[in-house]
Amino acid sequence: MPELKRLHANHAQAVLAFELANRTYFAASISDRGDDFFDRFTDGYNALLAEQETGSCAFYVLVAEDGSVLGRFNLYDLEDGIARLGYRVAERVAGRGVATAAVQELCGMATARHGLQTLRAATSHDNAASQKVLAKAGFVPAGPATPADLGGKSGTWYQRHLQP
Predict the structure, then answer these.
(1) pTM over 0.85
(2) pLDDT at 60 > cutoff 80
(3) Which of 70, 129, 134, 142 has the most C-beta neighbours closer than 10 Å?
(4) Order of strands across the sheet with 3-6?
């Protein structure tokens, strides 16, 4: 059974393997991270861990029983009880409810661990899978998302008010 865990230094190699294995798959629906992300992965990863320590963000990985990463689920810009949600799941588990279950679990963690009351997430108009995940996880459309919000694509912001 996969487990949602707070990002830790010992996840680095599994996260890199996840990103590399799914790069082409992700690029079909969201902006590619670019070669620089991979060339400087260690520095970027360490920066994420340092940012997480400040409390402004919280990063999670969905870890399979074999230690591989099946998904990344991130809370950004935690402030005044609100945060942005971002996520991606491996192609090998896409379409199986894995993302929906992890987003629902993270909603509970967002309240219990981080004191959040509202989560917001943006998805492009052509990312039907992400739209379905958000709807199934209790998010509702909350307005347009601009290309600046979505790496060059237009889309929709979704929002969910969390229950304590």
Answers:
(1) yes
(2) yes
(3) 134
(4) 3-6, 58-63, 69-79, 82-89, 118-124, 155-161, 140-145
